[in-house]
Design brief:
The protein is an alpha/beta fold and about 250 residues long. Helices cover about 35% and strands about 20% of the residues. Helix 1 runs parallel beside helix 8.
Length: about 250
């Protein structure tokens, strides 16, 4: 396949550089990938920029949880979009819903203005909206370039029928980017069925902490998550996905 997109979701400099070496065409930069991602530090973006010029989109998500935001949160989101635009990010990844599950068009229009000439992706708020086909048409109206989606399922293979339907409605105006559970094997199975050309993956591996002394019984957050495992993107997993895309 020519002109494919393989976006790597990363939350560290190490993961960003590994993804680039593996052949990723774009990064989605976030923090706290272990909880689905939140807005990264501007300093993290700047550090990556010192080592790489790979196309980088920034996830703008102020917290874990739903995508219906308070006025305070919305003001923070707007400032983050403008800030990353000034810092030279290539794009932002955003999404806001109303309590009834519809896209918050009023707030999204303001964010599109804030984004200016940056590329905009509608993130997986799309996967919990009430009417995905209507939301897709609204995204086109807004000028959003990409929708990141699993087809409204936990795993993209479970959402393959919806993904196929969405790809058929791209009309050259928007790109459906398949996410959630993506790896080389998934791409090999789902691409011929959906005809999607854009994919999103973390390619993650769990690395042991460098800590020798380990205090037991003390958790910094969720007790079920080890404090002594570090999640990083694995270069080879990205490379394998690229090889599959190139072969299709």
């Amino acid at each position: 396949m020519k002109n494919y997109i393989l976006e790597a979701c990363v939350d560290s400099v190490e993961s960003a550089l590994a993804a680039e070496k593996g052949g990723a065409t774009r990064l989605e930069l976030c923090s706290n990938l272990i909880i689905g991602g939140t807005t990264p530090s501007p300093c993290l973006f700047q550090e990556i920029r010192e080592h790489s010029d790979i196309c980088t989109h920034i996830l703008i998500r102020p917290r874990f949880g739903d995508f219906c935001y308070t006025d305070y949160e919305f003001r923070v989101i707007r400032r983050e979009v403008r800030n990353f635009r000034e810092l030279g990010a290539d794009g932002v990844v955003i999404g806001i819903l109303k309590p009834d599950g519809t896209l918050n068009m009023e707030q999204m229009k303001m964010l599109m203005e804030d984004a200016g000439d940056m590329s905009v992706t509608l993130h997986r708020a799309f996967d919990v909206c009430v009417d995905p086909m209507k939301a897709m048409e609204q995204a086109k109206e807004l000028g959003i370039r990409t929708i990141l989606t699993s087809g409204q399922k936990n795993h993209c293979l479970e959402g393959r029928d919806m993904l196929k339907k969405l790809v058929e409605q791209e009309e050259g105006r928007i790109t459906i980017q398949v996410g959630s559970g993506v790896d080389a094997d998934t791409i090999r199975e789902i691409q011929p069925y959906t005809r999607a050309h854009a994919f999103h993956m973390s390619g993650k591996q769990n690395l042991e902490s460098r800590m020798v002394y380990r205090k037991e019984g003390v958790s910094m957050g969720v007790s079920s998550i080890s404090e002594f495992e570090i999640i990083r993107t694995e270069e080879e997993r990205i490379r394998q996905a690229c090889q599959v895309l190139e072969s299709l």
